[in-house]
């Protein structure tokens, strides 16, 4: 069964992970995100309880 032979596939997997880790990932991480996180404090809204007509 050729699927169980790891000889050619292990090297392909290893080289693809090395390519991703060393070449593609730093290029992707260098992009700045369009929505950078802001340092605003979250606004708390005052809630009023619901007045039920039958109570």
TrEMBL record:
Please give, as recorded in its UniProt entry, the membrane topology of this protein.
Single-pass membrane protein
UniProt keywords, alphabetically:
ATP synthesis, CF(0), Hydrogen ion transport, Ion transport, Membrane, Mitochondrion, Transmembrane, Transmembrane helix, Transport
Q: Which molecular-function annotation in GO is an example for this chain? A: proton transmembrane transporter activity
Give the residue ranges for region: Disordered: 34-55
Q: Using the record for this protein, list the coiled-coil segments as residue ranges, or answer none.
A: none
Q: Just give the chief location class.
A: mitochondrion
The portions of this protein that span the membrane are 6-24
Signal peptide (residue range): none
Compartments where found: Mitochondrion membrane
InterPro entries hit by this protein: ATP8_metazoa, ATPase_protein_8
Name a single GO biological process: proton motive force-driven ATP synthesis
Q: Which domain of life is it from?
A: Eukaryota
Question: One GO CC term of this entry?
Answer: mitochondrial membrane
Pfam families per the UniProt record, alphabetical: ATP-synt_8
- Which family does the record claim for this protein? Belongs to the ATPase protein 8 family.
**Full protein name:** ATP synthase complex subunit 8
Upper classification of the organism: Eukaryota, Metazoa, Chordata, Craniata, Vertebrata
